[in-house]
């Protein structure tokens, strides 16, 4: 086990740690060079919609995806990262103007953190409290034609390869704004350093699985809901990815970039409590440095733990992070590395894409 990384309180308790690649010379697993490369391309599952969105020069056939059940490393094995990058490279990212602002520059060493203590016995009780808090939330009811607006702060650590040289780098903490229509067929994304200032369209013929209208029609019975989650995630899950991990990721996606009705949100937490391997974590920090408690699950394949972070008092959902908690043969990053961190800063219903809360339509 590696020694605990050095610590500083903000942002998000990251430290600058050198030498995160193993000291012994070794070949990275197939596709690992694409680990979190072009993070927008990995995270913007809304863009990965239909074959009609690829250009004639795309070097790889498009992948049909039932969103949001394809996301990051937890649903794709290491060998799939190169494919994901190539597929996205052929998408018609329209409305953004020049191409020269779409790739975030790596700005520093890896993001690292102290690892919170996991408690397998504490998850059911904490999720029950979180579920009750979600059910008591007075969430607004959207009007027909409105959009879900979510503003967040995000950052990532990944392996950057130039020629035959690889190094662990991080993107700077940056803003992300996404708009999705209630039916999941239209939307817009603006992400600093990843898109131009104007952003890119998320319009597609296939609606998002996590669209508000879809969520509003789901059962609020946790067992029924969990069966739906497993069925949807199984349809796109790579066989190398554990089934329970894929289901946990799917619920996290619905929580982060959607706005489920209060009763559905409460049911999602109760469903998560039924997934084997889910734990509570005594302390976790979101991308803006807010401390909270977390509900988490470790992927045994890559040793990374996904943490959903909640305010310790109100139990309001704050954000998410992914932390390397165990060394594995499939993951060259050291224990304590934060491969992804995010924080929701605002969530609302608005009357049009690109409209901000409080603006007149």
Give a description of the structure.
The relative contact order is 0.20. The longest helix is centred in the last third of the chain and has 14 residues. The protein is α+β, with helices and mostly antiparallel strands and 361 residues long. It is built from eight helices and 14 strands. Strands 2, 4, 5, 6, 7, 8, 9, 10, 11, 12, 13 and 14 form a twelve-stranded antiparallel sheet that branches.
Task: Describe the structure concisely for a colleague.
By secondary structure, the protein is of the alpha+beta class.
Tags for this entry?
25% strand, two-stranded antiparallel ribbon, 361 residues, alpha+beta, 14 strands
Going by helix content, strand content and strand pairing, the class is alpha+beta
Helix content: 10-25%
Low-confidence stretches: 1-105
The mean pLDDT is 75
What is the terminal-to-terminal distance?
A: 55 Å
Shape: globular
Oligomer: single chain
Number of extended strands: 14
Name the helix and strand elements from N-terminus to C-terminus, one letter apiece: EHHHEEEHEEEEEHHHHEEEEE
Strand residue content = 25-35%
**Biggest sheet character:** 12 strands, antiparallel
The total of helices stands at: 8
Q: Whole-number radius of gyration? A: 19 Å
Topology:
Layout: E1 16-17, H1 39-43, H2 72-75, H3 81-89, E2 106-108, E3 110-111, E4 118-119, H4 123-135, E5 147-162, E6 165-171, E7 174-181, E8 187-191, E9 200-201, H5 212-216, H6 222-234, H7 243-256, H8 262-272, E10 279-285, E11 291-299, E12 304-310, E13 317-324, E14 338-350
Antiparallel strand pairs: 1-3, 2-6, 4-10, 5-6, 5-7, 5-14, 7-8, 8-9, 10-11, 11-12, 12-13, 13-14
Helix pairs in contact: 4-8, 6-7, 6-8, 7-8
